Protein 1
Amino acid sequence: MTIDVFGLSITIPELFWTIVNLIILYFLLKKLLFKPLLEFVDARAARVQAGLDEGVKAEKTLKDTEQLMEDEVMKSNAEARSMIEQARAEASKENEAKLAEARKQSLEIREEIKCRIASEEADEKEKIDEKMVDFITLLSNRLLHSNEASGKEDLIKDCIDAAK
């Protein structure tokens, strides 16, 4: 017996075997393709999330460091003000030369602290830049699995430039 579907005549055994073949193909694809593909996508998503978490952690570290530097500057400014007030009190008791020396010392302390803060800030920014480059390189290598060698380098450079 034949069935006429959209102008095609199909016999019942052909329809039955076609359905059986489709079911077998579906289970084979599910076992051999879909499951590994979903595992790969999940693993990649976990790596991306770990990289993003590391970036957030680095950003938090930078903010904490900036806050510590700001607190240190405020403390240093308070110490400098205290030294200046002390020098002024002593200046009324002593001569003008001692007051000039105290001012000189407070300026040196401020400059030293400013240099230290600038150095620490540069170090933290360099660490973040290094981690960001590593992250972008890793992400680019994971996402791009093509055989075009010249395209990879250009894409990685574009990612690094975009991250800065």
Note: Helices lie at 12-93, 96-143, 149-163.
Protein 2
Amino acid sequence: MIQEIRTYRIAPGSLAEVEKRFGEAYEKRKKYSELTAFWHTEIGPLNEIIHVWGYRDLAERARIRAEAVKDGVWPPKTAEFIREMKSEIVNPFPFVPEVQPGKIGPIFEIRYYTLKGGTLPDTMKGWEAKLPERIKLSPVVLAGGVEFGTANGFVHIWAYQSLEQRAQVREQARKTGAWPPPGGADRLITQANKTAALLAVLAPAGVAQTPARVRGSISELIGPVLMIKTREGPTVQVRLLEGLTVLGVGKAVLADVKPGAYVGVAAVKQADGMYRAQEITIFPHMARGSAEGHTPWDLTPDSTMTNATVEAIVVRSAGHLLTLTYKDGELKVTVPPRTPVVTFAIATHALLAPGAHVFVPAVRQPDGSLATSRILVGKDGVVPPM
């Protein structure tokens, strides 16, 4: 069995439409072969979708792809959004459990290594000895050498219930000696990581779900269902998915916004063409690069959201002027003196208490219900301003 990992960098702000079109086309494509996995990145290199396809061998891959193209069901109509494409054929290590459809995650970490020439066999021996103990802590989705793609490449993908669990597992593995295998660092030339927060739909992939942001305060937690009194008035139910990540939102000040910081700025465009900030969220280092770009936002009807790096700051009595840079552009934003400024960090479920203010990046399911794998909760009375 081989696995093909296809990574597409897409235009900022196009993810929802790309996933929608991909999902629609996949409904016809899956009769030829089903996805192993489909992900989009949340932390690390942003604006990427990653789809993984399993085949018995290269001959089957060629036959299936040719049939799908000939019958007009593939590829999906997403070419206008694609900025870069990469494909790698991975030979999984023979002792790694074969990928099976199921509910694992929802946080996935993809690690890409370039090994020194001729060291893959030794790497494989080390993994074979250590992996049985390591997968008792969290499952490995895929691990193997790159046959076609990056020369001397080595890819491994791990599933976690949350970012918090990832940190706990990695610490426990180091303390107990379960991981990593010996000698690994000596064989490395390069090491890259999609980091720890990849939201995923494991095979078979479904039709893309619709984002639905919920702002309000917690009324009640009933099992896995959170009752939220929204800022608009009605109470809604949001199902908390297994492996929920809780992020605690704390107060910061404008002086904490420094050149080089990665921020999210909700803003509105003024009559003179300048943007006025409505709130600023300072991202922690682990979340740097998240959802980079300038997109519409729903804080108010005319809001935008810019996730970007602070290039420069001009201090003025009437409000600072920030220059924000992102992959495809630059934006200047004025920040009135009383603009809310916050930051966030991994927190525990103890914050999910009645009265706590929340911001929930939920998705609307096919049956109309709301579900989420991530929730931002205000600490010490803070109202998440985003």
Note: The chain has two domains: 2-202, 210-378.
Protein 3
Amino acid sequence: MTLSTLDETVSNYRIIRSARRTLSLEVSADLEVLVRSPRWIAEREIRAFVEDKAGWIEKTRSRILKRQERPLELTQTQAGGLFFQGQLYPFWIDPSLTERFSFQEGFRIHPFWAGEPEKPVESWFRREAARILADRMNFFVSGGVSACKKIRIGRAQTRWGSCSPRGGIIFNWRLLMCPPAVIDYGVIHELCHLQEMNHSRNFWKNVKVLCPNYKSACKWLREHGDLLLRPIPKPILISGNHGLNALPLSVNPVP
């Protein structure tokens, strides 16, 4: 499915209104066009905005399609593995586990949850993300960066983070699957939006002060980010005397 005409572009989009101050566009993983708008902007202005961005929408949809069609190389579906801070760890069914999900030199899940692992996996990553991302934010704030008013952990389909005009920041829990340098970039990116609610030259200048290698992090996300947004893989069953070396551990490229 690709954009074929301008009329198709401007007639198929969903508007999400909130207390934000500016218009923004995004294309979801299923190619839906989302327009985020302040409550006061008229629909004719929104339509004109979408018409003006029709070329960008088509390019973005095409890029998403190419990524989805790309053969998987180092992904979470390999031998039942999950990424955590850039490292691929085994993901096993462990009958001896007393809790539903655990990280013990690898990810282990209780047999009861093995058929539908999404809930315990997301719950664990959300807790860890809340702790680790808050620590990284406090680190940068202690260096003089403006502090956000509230941090939340979300599950956006295509975004790694977002910042509201009211000073709240939402991070995608899957950001924790990225290498530490990329996680820091994600944190810095949103903190810099507290000063500049745009992607202007001043915004990127502020990002570069705190993250000189931010272009490498952006490149890493473009090349690998969509793989981390794929569905959670099914775990494999531990059998025989296989220990922690039953699966090879692979390291994702770090910028």
Note: The chain is about 35% helix and 20% strand.
Protein 4
Amino acid sequence: MCDAAWGGDKEKIEKLVQAGQDVNQRGKGWGRTPLMYAASHGRTACLEYLIKNGAQLDLKDERGDAALHLAAQGGHLEVMKILVKAGQNVNQRDGWERTPLMDAARKGYADCVEYLLQNGAQLDLKDTDGRTALMRAAVLGHTDCVGYLIQKGAQLHLKDCEGKTALEQASEYGHSSIVKLLEAAADKGKYSIGQLSDRYQPEYNKSILFKHSEWENKLQISQIVM
């Protein structure tokens, strides 16, 4: 059944269920259930059938990922909608204490980030590295995700287990457009650059902040209250 879910073969799944197979059986790879395979590969028809026939939403694989984590990692928005509507916890944690929001942010799926936040995802939770969704997006250079998280009020002053903010992390990895976004948000908020990171030394000309960023109008920085 796991193979059928992975391949999107709903007809085969139906036959196996009718033959009495367990919809929550575990596959050999990471101990995932058919629901997890359907979620990770965007198989919406299989997913809906499995849920209707008793698939458990709260089960996790050997890495601690639930179906919603896997959907977020793959950017499968429609799958996420089905899972959330069915009652999956949007703030469920994996083995590294990551939430689906963190997964969507670190993979760069801004539409998934937006959906999760609209459906109860907590914005500033931290994983085992002390990193938030904003930090995960900043480290990996996902400008759209960073912009949206800032717009929704992500806390800029938070630090990870190494004492680094999202601003410092973006600077370390050379993501200049994200540094500009974070600087601009800090300038318009109550936190100064110095408060955001004691060790951060500005490497970019503030006079060109937002000059070429598509988020210049979207963020409406002047209205952000950190």
Note: The chain has two domains: 1-89, 123-226.
